[in-house]
Amino acid sequence: xxxxxxxLLAFYRxxxxxxxxxxxxxxxxxxxxxxxxxxxxxxxxxAATGVCANLTDAxxxxxxxRGHGHLIAKGxxxxxxxxxxYGKATGYCKGKGGSMHIADVDLGILGANGxxxxxxxxxxxAAFACKYRGNGTVAVCFFGDGAANRGTFHEALNLxxxxxxxxxxxxxxxxxxxxNCQRDHMNIVDIADRAAAYGIPGATVDGNDVVAVYEAAxxxxxxxxxxxxxxxxxxxxxxxRGHFEGDPGAYKNxxxxxxxxxxxxxxxLAQKLIDLxxxxxADLAAIDDEVKAQVAAAVDFAEQSPDPDPADVLTDxxxx
Amino acid sequence: MATVxxxxxxxxxxxxxxxxxxxxxxxxxxxxxxxxxxLLGLAAAGVSRVLYxxxxxxxxxxxxxxxxSRDRPPLDLAAADIRLTATQDDSMHAAxxxxxxxxxxxxxxxxxxxxxxxxxxxxxxxxxxxxxxxxNVFPVMLEGTAxxxxxxxxxxxxxxxxxxxxxxxxxxxxxxxRPADTALIDAVVLEDSFVGSRAIWDVGQLRQIVLTRGEPxxxxxxxxxxxxxxxxxxxxxxxxxxxxxxVAAVLAPIAPGVxxxxxxxxxxxxxxxxxxxxxxTPCILALDGEREVEVRAGEQVSIRLDLDGPAVVDHxxxxxxxxxxxxxxxxxxxxxxPGRKP
Amino acid sequence: MKKMxxxxxxxxxxxxxxxxxPSVYLCGEDVGKFGGCFGVTAGLVDEFxxxxxxxxxxxxxxxxxxxxxxxxxxxxxxxxxFVDFTGVCMxxxxxxxxxxxxxxxxxxxxxxxxxTICGGGLGAAAQHSQCMEAWFxxxxxxxxxxxxxxxxxxxxxxxxxxxxxxxxxxxxxxLLGLSGDVPAGEYLVPLGQADIKRAGGDVxxxxxxxxxxxxxAAAEALAREGIAAEIIDLRSVVPLDxxxxxxxxxxxxxLVIVHEAVKTGGFGxxxxxxxxEEGFDLLDTPIKRVTAPDTPVPFSAVLEKAYLPSEGKIIxxxxxxx
Lengths: 320, 342, 322
Ligand SMILES: Cc1ncc(C[n+]2csc(CCOP(=O)(O)OP(=O)(O)O)c2C)c(N)n1
Ligand SMILES: [Mg+2]
What we know:
The complex is a heterotrimer. By secondary structure, chain A is of the alpha/beta class.
């Protein structure tokens, strides 16, 4: 459980990478360079970071339409991601998927997903494969508060529970499904309460505190690896931006938005690192600069990459 | 006009101790149910006004809404005048606002953490703390109707005095000589850097423990004291345990379902007013079971045992006193005004 | 007549019907205060208090509850944000809404509208760009309409709401901003009536939804080369207006079918089969289909452009018949 300074600095770097990548994506979208829908995760970085720090490349995740953070935290490469956002041939999905469908199966990333709630049973299936093979790997399912109302939530948690599967359900409760705030879409406040209905443990943590998320996920992953079955962790957090780029988010209460901006997970960790003497402000600034350069290089890579060959529309439909 | 305050913590019973231990799951709907019973008990005891802590779930308004119209008591209900922060501070502010507004008894729903926050705001007004949390040494497991009746008789002046209301102890955390925080049961020095998910379950991090009380039947860090040298809730002394070198060990239930060996160096009784210095910084202080205070390198921190903790209601004594005075006796059925309370 | 966009025309159709019939209500994700993901229902929540309901993300219950409410006498217009999400509520549609009347021996009716939107061209990728009308057409008991113009959007909405059967009403993302003349007040376009959007004697092009406009553009170009194409906008795929199709083919003796959905199992196959069965002798040449290939919708603009049926592909298909 004791986190080393190295761990904490890695958390910092991951969160900054997500933030920088997405801030750049917002800019590029506004400049008309990215087609389609882009859903940003800014403000929620601690959740993906704290969870994925407990996983190896052999573990699986299922992600969502708001997936960039999960992918980066699971080890996804920002250059291949950026190229995919551009729809280039060099992108993760050869330009066929885009932001909402990025996947890297070699890293256990079973895809972002355009269908809300679709990842829940898929994660259950991946967890079944983990258990079936008996190699101690686990699956983690990321999903939102809105997705917790899909029927798939019920079916997935129930099946995972009766089969005692090594899966961790991570509900990123950012309190909105598009414009619909949690108050209006469910009659409870703590989604973790639902775990009891499936006979599995559930806990609520501060999703903007990377250490809190890490600790909870560590325990849930330990249970899963040890054959103790699924858990549900609810990370309370907040999406800073609109639902998708272009949505001004007029339905959000500005006071609430302000209060959540003040809970920004990145400066919170930065201050701790400095207080604990694990890093100086200059050390952190150096990480920021490295990440910035890495993201800038990713943009260059994407821009210089070729478009897919139109003939490739027809490839990859079936495995041969 | 007898007024009672209700502080129901919507966040209690949810934290990571459902994962790292086997903590009770308390969903808010059950808290709503308990509050319904409390309200009915309060009204039956003659309370006319109830102030409640507003919360993001709306536990008390939902409780009222869900009462069948047949049972809805004629209570004057109002939210305490606080600015909601959705943090534990709400409990403290609500307690203070209720005292200010004339509440004569506070009923709380939560665990030790909630009670600790209420104690910071309740002044001399007696508290009846019900357990809906995780580590529950301070609050009691009590059926809501009985709790409502007990708080009601205290608020209405039908029960009181030193047998019914007693002062609990507390620990004052002094940072650089100034009071910075309070604990009701235990203050624990942890070799850790993060408040993180708040709970404590890794006994390897324990460095020092200071207790107001500790009995063998307790759950939580106070159970360690309960095994070594029990101290009752109202005995004028406390206990300090140093966990530095592993000189000896004891088995104790430090969290629900977590009965583990705890090593320690020595322990000793402490006297009221005595300050136990925190030996090494930086560290984290856990108060009443939750990592709470970050202590930076070089800060001077000590923990003092005080006898002027919150006033607590002994519900059995309260109800016994009311019964003995005939408080709930009614006029003979013939003369009875239908539906009237005493 | 009033100039309005396709989106405004849908809203106007909803508004007029809601004013007319208090049993009509709207429900779906973000249809209320957000005004719908594409702004189609903007403002209706204020105009009709209590009759525009925001739901959780719960497609199964959105359509299932519409079935129940319709069976119990209301006229729900239930929105599924993208046609791609109808997979989630397919049972409610194909085993419940569609079969209730028949299974109950004609004693029930399910007057509901499933409002949704289809189509590509926005870079929205494989799960937000599809055209699924053939699915619905394959379910007896359901009607399926796909307006291509603002006036049709309004008239078909009104007819769909007044119909006593479940109607799947499929909008198209590319058409929302399209402007046109729309009759004011009550206006109905009967279900099952195709519309000849351009008359011509040399070739019949049967199409619907967004592709009507690509076919019209192709017809314009073909006219310059001396080929007069007749553009039939089906408007409803079920009920299918066979008469208009056969009459046209009788005149032109040539048939090209254009749709945005994938080819295999696409509704174009049904149109072709009808003409082959009932108008084989009218044909001088083989029937041609211009459709998307049998692949998911790709994300990249370059790939999506290659994927979608274009004016050029339509022109080429027509020319191959001459
Ligand atoms: C089955 C399905 N229904 C609706 C949508 C449209 N949609 C996309 S994201 C979203 C909101 C999801 O909310 P939540 O699960 O809380 O995730 P968040 O966007 O807040 O991260 C909706 C309704 C969809 N993609 N899939
Ligand atoms: Mg959400």
